[in-house]
Amino acid sequence: MTPFERNDNQERKEPFTHFINKMDRLFSERPPRGMLQSLDGLFGSTKEQSFPVRLHETNTEYILTATLPGIPRSHISIDLLPQSVTISTRVSAEKNHQSTNFIRNEKSASQLSKTLTFSKPIDERKVRASHRDGILTLNLPKVKGNRIEIND
Question: Which of 42, 69, 106, 120 has the most CB atoms around its CB within 10 Å?
Answer without folding.
Answer: 120
